[in-house]
Specification:
It is built from two helices and no strands. By secondary structure, it is mainly alpha-helical. The protein has a domain at 24-49. The longest helix is centred in the C-terminal third of the chain and has 25 residues, at 24-48. The relative contact order is 0.07.
Length: 49
């Protein structure tokens, strides 16, 4: 019973996320944010070495 409810909740959350991701403003924001995140990850990796 609980598993079914969690599945439904998950699908609802995913649909909300997909709607947000589909919006043009968010798409632009992600495109700008991704390279910055990649740079940060590379910096952290190089620091560990």
């Amino acid at each position: 019973m609980f598993f079914v409810i969690s599945k439904e909740e998950r699908s609802l959350k995913m649909s909300k996320l997909s709607r947000l991701l589909k919006s043009p403003a968010v798409k632009k924001g992600i495109k700008k944010a991704v390279p910055i995140i990649m740079k940060e990850l590379k910096k952290r990796k190089s620091k560990r070495r």
